[in-house]
Model the fold of this input.
Amino acid sequence: MLTAEPIFLTAEIREIEHLITLLPTPPRLMEKAGLAAAQIVRDQLHKNPNYHILVLAGPGNNGGDAFVVARHMKEWGNAVTVVFNGDLNRVPPDAKQAIQAWLDIGGEVLADIPDGDQNWDTVIDGLFGIGLDQSRGRPIEGKYREWVDTVNRMNAPIVSLDIPSGLGSDDGCIYGTAIRATTTVTFIGLKPGLFTNFGPECCGTIVLRDLNILLPSPPEPHVWLLNQNLAQSLLPPPRPVNSHKGSFGNVAILGGSTGMVGAALLAGRTALYLGAGRVYLGLLAESVPPVDFSQPELMLRHPSELFTLESLNCLIIGPGLGQSKEALSWLEHALNDEHVLVLDADALNLIAQHQHLAQRLSQRNASTILTPHPAEAARLLYTDTATVQNDRMNAAYQISQQFNCHIVLKGAGSICCFPEGKRFLNTSGNPGLSTAGTGDVLTGIIGALIAQDLNPRQALMLAVYLHGAAADHLLQQNQGPLGMVASEIINMARLLLNKWIYQKKKTLS
Done:
């Protein structure tokens, strides 16, 4: 597997910063960060001087970074206005030096954003960095809130330093209000809040500047980025010419109660289109047709027959399952089965309602994948959706630990988590996925990849990224997310998977 790009929690970034101070010759982090950000701003302005730049500087080290950016931009010939509302005598030592360096070149400090319709070419957001989070309980309010709201209404690019002000570094929550940046220049390492919850909405383009920090023993990360490079390192190999349907595995899907047969059909068709050799459906509806006439390749069976199939690679239970006594009985049967399970939708709701199912799930020897959305995750954790969303990283970890399973917590910046605690933050997907049936498509992709001999961990990560990437391609094709439907994603995911596998083959040959 390709080495994944690490993501660091706030505590881990603080540990890195502390270890830097212990180096024989510690680098001046603020100077390095400010210069790196200034160079990016200059490049965005095509290296031409005489631009009007507004800099918002906060009372901490993030504000110090902003003063360094301001100094460089002024030295390069731009008109720079710095706004600062803190107490100059109470700022951290490094920030105080940055402020003095700004004043030494003739820079001025204003107490408020100038009135009138200024045509700013760029706004630099250096109000609050990674310290503004849930644990410290500091929502943006008062004058700072006014500034954030004013800047968000401006028709100017906004460059945030480290993280958009008001966005939680670990959780992606908004504390009071938050900057909607065009570009976020983040320092030392990536942060979870950039990619999950409200992060994708607030950050714009994310640019990492690690500041060339080399530590002899850096802290071990627990979170990594799930991007296209990592996803494409997980691909199944090209198919050999001498192959047959038995070469690519068998997937069984149990669900489709009365009124919800479509969910099981979506999952089944997805598994077929994404490469499973055979796909069986066990439908619970009262009246089940002998064949799916629009997709006759699907093999319809009585639910009991799914447990007697030979060489079954994966059993999916949940799409359209319902919560009847029959559904409960078949779920109990599945949890006692030794096949790899993918549990979704009402399978998760039933587990949340019945303690004996939850206990059996946690005791399984075979691998299990759970695919909850935030409301289902809340039920599994006996809490509410807001609590899950306010700490998505921890919610995913708790479910994985509690049930000894692989999990994807769906939503903006879906989180894949594994029993040993490793988490991967997905970077694909868009609001077009916010429609019925897309979760069923995801479970079908997971099942298809397991059938093609990917292990459950690999299948989960590749499926999550591919599912979002298919939606991203449809977003471009449709000029927006409106009206995207789940069945469209199936064909696009198939196209991308083939493209990735066979482009990779050409590259290697």
